[in-house]
Amino acid sequence: MDALRAGVHYPRSVGEFQAWFRTDADCLDYLEWLQWPGCFVCPDCGQRGGWRLGDGRFMCCACGVRTSVTAGTIFDRTRTPLTVWFAVCWQLATDKEGVSALSLKRVLEIGSYQTAWAMLHRLRSVLVRPGRERLGGTVEVDETYIGGEEPELPGGRARGKKVLAAIAVEVSDPRGLGRCRIVPIADASATSLHAFVADHVEPGARVITDGWMGYRGLTKLGYLHEPRSRRAARTSGQDPTPLLQGPHRVASLAKRWLLGTHQGSVDDAHLGSYLNEFVFRFNRRRSRSRGMLFYRALELAVAHAPIRYQDLIAQRRPRPVPPVPPGTHGHPPSLERPPAERPWRRSGANSG
Ligand SMILES: [Zn+2]
Question: How confident is the model at residue 242 (pLDDT cuts 50, 70, 90)?
């Protein structure tokens, strides 16, 4: 693939996508271009330059190792044609609402639901770029419960339980939202919340939270922490509504997406992975082309180590809840709380 074209190296439309990737060889060419722009680089010895062999693999000109562009990536040893992988990736990246395993299985005539499910999960796993920049500027942080309210699910799968998730969103005046993060957390303790903020927000940022004690101590971690209390706003005659609007908006979009595209059939062990997909799409919602998202997703896919099926189905639950010191448990996430009164009262139903 010598002269890539269109939106500058990604297809801009379904028509262009189909024209670019008719065969597995077309897909291999594209992956090679992503993996080794300009020239083959040996994954073993780091030498630049090599030969393409008859079977499509490359041979290093220095150490003679033979390798393929898919070796050591999420496409390693896949039995699914690359054209199907590319079609899945195109759907995932370009459909504004994403795509479910069930609809992929139907639309692309993928043999089994498990295959479609595993392909989507492999792609979701790569969407978090290692070393991605943390959020900055003014960031609102809050928690919410996700799941748990869906009706009986088809296929005899277990009902989802509620999972606590922390949300961080960049906000700008007057009401603009920047990038966001949503990650399942074990509980609303200071340990969990501080770790979440440290992982996802750049030190020095202005962090706005509610008055929950789990957020105390963020100043010591290097943040300009502004705890705000609805109650205080109300008693001082201010309108408490705008408090933490960013996390509210993001949480409702994420929940609507989980209930819509996935019909709520997301088990809590994999919720984090679905939320990664949501964040990937949300943070690129202003991309000038959906095709660019396809390009970004594939670029991440060839840079990502293989993912074993066993690892995908392994239960990746949030850490078990550690014992909570008396008086600090039962923080009902503010998104579930009634707006004003007695916000820190133990909810009774959920204590962690
Ligand atoms: Zn080599």
Answer: low
- Given a cut of 70, is residue 283 above it in pLDDT? yes
pTM above threshold 0.70: yes
Q: How far is the CA of 200 from the centre of ligand 1 (A)?
A: 37
Closest by Cα among 122, 129, 136 to 168: 136
Q: How close are the terminal C-alpha atoms of the chain, in Å? A: 54
Contact 23, 82 (CB under 8 A): no
Q: Ligand 1 centre from 33 Cα, in Å?
A: 18
How far is ligand 1, taken at its centre, from the CA of residue 57, in Å?
A: 13
| Distance between Cα 6 and ligand 1 center (Å) | 34
* Structural tokens at position 172: 């700008």
Tell how far the Cα of 77 is from the centroid of ligand 1, in angstroms. Answer: 21
CA 31 – CA 10 distance, rounded (Å): 12
**How far away, in angstroms, is 188 Cα from ligand 1 center?**
50
Q: Determine the distance separating the centroid of ligand 1 and the alpha carbon of 310, expressed in angstroms.
A: 31
User: Could you tell me how far CA 289 lies from the centroid of its own chain?
Assistant: 19
Could you give the CA distance from residue 209 to residue 223 in angstroms, rounded to a whole number?
Answer: 12
CA atoms within 13 A on the CB side of 342: 3
Please state, in angstroms and rounded to a whole number, the distance separating the CA atoms of residues 295 and 316.
28
Query: Which strand (E) or helix (H) includes residue 52?
Result: strand 50-52
Taking each helix axis as running N to C, give the angle between helix 82-94 and helix 24-35, from 0 to 180 degrees, rounded to the nearest 10: 70
Range with the lowest mean pLDDT among 146-155, 187-196, 198-207?
146-155
